[in-house]
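I hope you will forgive my troubling you with a question about protein structure. The record follows directly beneath this note:
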Amino acid sequence: MTTHRTALAAAHVAALLFGLTGIFGALIRSGPAVITFGRAGFAILALAAFAALQRRSLWRDMDLLRLGTLAGTGVLLTLHWVTFFVAVKIGGVAVATLGFASFPAFIAVLDMLVFRERISAAEGLLLVLVTVGLVLVTPSFDLADQGTVGLIWGLASGLFFAMLAMANRRATRGVGAMQVAFWQNLTVALLLLPFAAGQLHGPEGPDTRDWLNLALLGVFCTGLSHYLFVKSLDRLSARSAGMIIALEPVYAIVAAWWLFHEQPSLRMLAGAALIVLAIVISARAPREDPQDTHAAR
């Protein structure tokens, strides 16, 4: 039985593994298409194994409509991952992760524009914090600067993740989180197979170390992290778990600093602090449905 302490530990390990996603993206020599394809492929195997261990059927209550819905959300997951790894390759781990971390602000804006929902005072504060944080994080306002371009790609990743979270909240009701993750990852792998196939062989293809890192990325940073996060919800509220996951950018920045000597400036640290604070505020805000915390990272 999962205890409260075990659930807390599981959520923190999940946040750490989520934070290491960018690290593996930087370590793997291959391009974003191969990284995303490999991540999804190994994640499919891991999620199928976890489902078998829990004796949960990935086909339970599946029909063509639900499969089509999950395929649609899988397209958003594909765009989120590809743009994130492009951001990592161009701007580095810290910049890419902080750009992605803007997703709560995008959710608030999309709710207002698409669903005509009023922005609350907390959401207004969130938008201000994220905006100021991004201004501080931006290396320069010159598009010739790689860091700035990387941040823009990170923001695109955050936008697609916000769309994914909203789609999961509204379109995957009644479907288990493990099933959502499995079918979305399968969609990602199928979509990117034509683009990745030609890059899997030859001198520029993944070497043994790349394949190992792809396996670690797919199994641990995708399959295991998602399993641990969902498991933590047995004892933690979605709000508490979301606040722990808000530490993901912190773990990513520290790991990049340690491994790649991407030493952040005081200005970047200040911006990061504001963005993390915004994520915490978002996690504390009431949600329509706890399932929107199940959006695959």
User: Anything to note?
Assistant: Residues 64-91 form the longest helix (28 residues). Residues 59 and 96 are 35 Å apart (CA to CA). The chain has one domain: 4-294. The two ends are 26 Å apart (CA to CA).
